[in-house]
Amino acid sequence: MHHANYYYGHAHVLARYCGLADPAHPPRMLGYLQHGWNIGDGLAPGVPFVDGSPLFVWSEETRRRAVSQGRRNVIAIGSPFAYLQEMTPSATVEERAGTIFYPFHGWEGQQVMGDHQRLIDEVRSVEDGPVTVCLYWNEHRVRGIRKLYERAGFRVICHGYRGFWWRDHDREFLVRQLAELRRHRRVVSNRLCSAIWYGLLTGADAAVYGDPMVLEDGDMTFGGEPRLRRQWPEVYGYTTDRETCRALARRELGADNLARPAELRSMLGWPEPLERCA
């Protein structure tokens, strides 16, 4: 299985949904799974792949973009996060409160350049109530960045490590993210990203504002931040329309077109559960 299929525990979530006997050790997926929301074909720019292999994307919108860019054998299956929410009942908890803020982040190969203190000041001036900042592992391990948010009085968390090259994949990443999003009233970021759509899907309000920062050697193949603002203006600003944005989230995450377990197993090339094979 391509190592990116394990990112964020995606393969584990889908294996659990499919009812496999050992979801902790998903079998090889016969194709490439989109591992994050993007404005291209579902793959990160420059990712090599075997021609003819299936590309499993989250939504019909992404499938059409991929086909327009020359991809073939592209199948829209819905996002792993949408499947996780579908099979995780909402516990009876206290009313949502406060804001969870996701600063734009880098990764192993690229760092983000920008002023975190400037972001902190803007978030504090806009948000009512307590603020949780969720740093990606890449920034969370940098003590100076983490301390900035701690000194601002924010609760600082990290959902876990995405994983890389078949090592250290945190299968509970999305589980923790779902729980955090469900407890907050708002989810905000300085760039439109997966977390914004996820938060909207759980019922939170969402907003994108602040300095979008710059990704080191960023690839502008698909239009970058300027295109995000042009194509999804509804989510930008200090306040947004909840129902309009939630409808967009369901579309981008493929939440209204999730496959049934048997159908998804067939598409991914996974076996029937053992009890059904007996």
Write the layout of secondary structure elements.
Blueprint: H1 10-17, E1 32-33, E2 55-57, H2 60-68, E3 74-76, H3 80-86, E4 99-102, E5 112-113, H4 116-126, E6 131-134, H5 137-140, H6 143-151, E7 155-157, H7 173-183, E8 186-189, H8 194-202, E9 205-208, E10 214-215, H9 224-231, H10 242-252, H11 261-268, H12 274-277
Parallel strand pairs: 1-2, 2-3, 4-6, 4-8, 6-7, 8-9
Antiparallel strand pairs: 5-10
What does this structure look like?
The protein is of the alpha/beta class. The chain folds into two domains: 3-87 and 254-277, no CATH class; 99-252, 3-Layer(aba) Sandwich (Rossmann fold), CATH 3.40.50. Helix content is 36%, strand content 11%. The chain contains twelve helices and ten strands. The strands form three sheets. A five-stranded parallel sheet has the order 7-6-4-8-9, sandwiched between helices. Helix 1 (10-17) crosses helix 3 and helix 8 crosses helix 10.
